[in-house]
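User: quick one, fold this
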Amino acid sequence: MPKAPHVVVTGGGRGIGAATARLFKEKGYRVTIMARSRNQIESLADEIGAYAVRVDVGDPASVEAAFMAAGPVDVLVNNAGMVRSSRVMKTDVRVWEEHLKVNLTGSFLCALKVLPGMVSRGRGRIINVASIAGVQGLPYLAAYCASKHGLIGFTRALATEVGDSGVFVNAICPGYVDTAMTREACELIAERAEKSEEEARSYLASENASGKLLTASEVAESIYWLSTQEGEVNNGGYHTLEG
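Assistant:
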């Protein structure tokens, strides 16, 4: 009996990553969850019957070891990310570089580890989780916007190189999602703008087309769709999701 296809989800311990891991498992995939926090991913892996592998996506040696442990990959979901908010003139260069390392270089390093196998087998999917900040400029998020714009550029370039080999590469750009990262953003907005956290939450929700925050499960559904044959039509593009 052939093995079920194998998906790797980075940043899989919470939020969008955890919802994505759950959904792919429900669809019959073998799932490997990767993140820097071993406690988060081991708990979820035990719960859903997945594999847990610790990785620091910005560290080439850590990525090498993680993907050696994971084995051949059919679908890679580059979801690991970070965000810190500050005015451009108050953004420390180390914070800027950390955004690029995690949000952009991390996806590049992980893609490098799965591409040879995908190309040789003539099939594969890479889904890069960007953000609406990858297609817009948002105040106080210059480093985050730059890294996510870069991720979309990387997606487009990679798709042009490997599309003829049967490997499809896409990005998804969610609006504001009801995750721990967004809740942390609400706390910062409330602190700096002298608003309540509920007011900050309402403001972010109003920025989505639907007027409400997306759920992690809604984003996971779109990620899964991009991994299917139907998602092939969008090779090299980005899929916005604002509810």
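User: anything notable?
Assistant: Helices lie at 15-26, 38-48, 60-70, 93-121, 142-162, 180-193, 197-207, 216-227.
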